[in-house]
Amino acid sequence: MLKFIFPSIAIFFLLSCGKKNNSKPIEQIKNESFWSKSIVWTKCPRVNKEQKKQKELSNTESDINLISSIQFECGTFPVPIDWNNPNGETINLALKKAISPNQSAKIGYLIFNPGGPGGSGVAILESVLKLNPKLIQNFDIIGFDPRGIHASAGIKCKDSLDSNLFSFFDSEQNFSRMQTKIRNLRESCFEHSGKLIDFVNTENVVKDLEAMRVALGNQKLNYLGISYGTSIGATYAYHYPNNTRVMVLDGVLDLSKPFLETVKAETIAVKNTFQHFAEFCFNSAKCGFNFKQISSIFQNLKDEYEVRSDSKIIKVSKAFLQTYLSNAVTNAENWELMANAFRQLENPVQKEIELPISRDFSGFIQTFAVHCLDYPVNNLTWNEYVKLKEASKKIFPELNGHIITLNIHGICSAWNGKRHDPLIANHSLNISQPILFVSSPFDAITPHSSAILKHQQIKGSKLLEALVFKHGVSLLPNATCVQDNVNQFLTTVSLPTDYLFCTGK
After folding, report:
1. How many Cα atoms within 13 Å fall on the side-chain side of residue 433?
2. How far apart are CA 235 and CA 219, in angstroms?
3. Which among 110, 321, 355 is positioned nearest to 213, based on CA atoms?
4. Is pTM, for the whole model, over 0.70?
5. Residue spans of beta strands (DSSP E) within 216-324
6. d(CA 71, CA 97)
7. What is the pLDDT of residues 365-408, one digit of tens each?
8. Are strands 221-226 and 108-113 parallel, antiparallel or unpaired?
């Protein structure tokens, strides 16, 4: 069973080559010697017996045959912590490369990012190949862990988080207590990870990506990104508009709108998706509730539940459960589990429910570290937070404003540290770029309206709308229409029209 804290705001992006590109970025002009560094590729470390057993259990025979036929290499690449001081302290980025068996037809490198922030491109590379095996016919595919994430000097902290965190958003006094907890958490992260914690924002990740492109032979970038990965792609396009061959941005984040509009759009998307889930639930023997009944269950949740996950018990708050379910609903693959959960939640004496919730909340910290630097809101007051929450409650009152974006925004109100310019300007591009935006009108995490707006802002871009209940649809197995268009665009940088439409298959 797939374990997750929330269905990740996230999944995929890619990079490739093309003609030689001789334009030099400002960072390269500042320090020529640094840009002579190369990626050191070696054999990937062997997995231990337990990891190998788990992989075999999760793979089909065709998956095993595919992966065993591909050669992988793992690499490290040094980048400065602070790009304004390229001769200062460095960290090593972790990369993994799947080598195309068809080198004579290879277009170049395809770099991908799985989103998050906090997703590991190294860990998920094999899954990408299994979900869309045709990608490797024309590209060597590279997954990388962005700075501060997983194997790329992943942010570590002395303190940790628990599932009660979102419960502190119910009063001004508790909001202040939450902010104190977050300030202490951030200080413990600084103690363990040093100044890197102030430089894990997307602007620096994009400079790392440009350095990787140069190290790979100065070939133009081919990139596929999902969710947060779309921020990396859009920001790269803004800073290096002449260095891109092709991009696919799937599950589009848009920071060019005022945050109030973002909260409203996300809440509308969550409510609409719950209405479709309710149709599924009403016709399910395990559920049988309509939307009104599901809303009532939300409204009558107890303050705390015990959740059983893989035979382990974890206590979660009502606020956490509301946030969790508002994210889980975006993926129809979770609906059977959710239907069973709502059946248990409907029972007023039920104390224990089953959901695949991870006990490890450390991944959240890396999400906060990036998000809070990208969109700094350390001056957000309780009254301002309440206005945002009330706007969400007017749309879907039973959820009580517990959507993940708003909760992270509240947490970032206390994430002190180096301030960076927000990414807002970089998402209002108004330039010409070879980009395909992929989106679903049923995506409750990155609303479809964001993809429409980005398509309007970027000249020459394409928009693919897929009628799928999923966040990140470009790697859906058996989604032939979506994958055929994505693969064609990555290969030829062209599609027949600016707007395309796909059903689930």
Report:
1. 34
2. 18
3. 110
4. yes
5. 221-226, 244-250, 304-309, 312-317
6. 8
7. 888 899 888 876 767 889 999 999 999 999 999 999 999 888 88
8. parallel
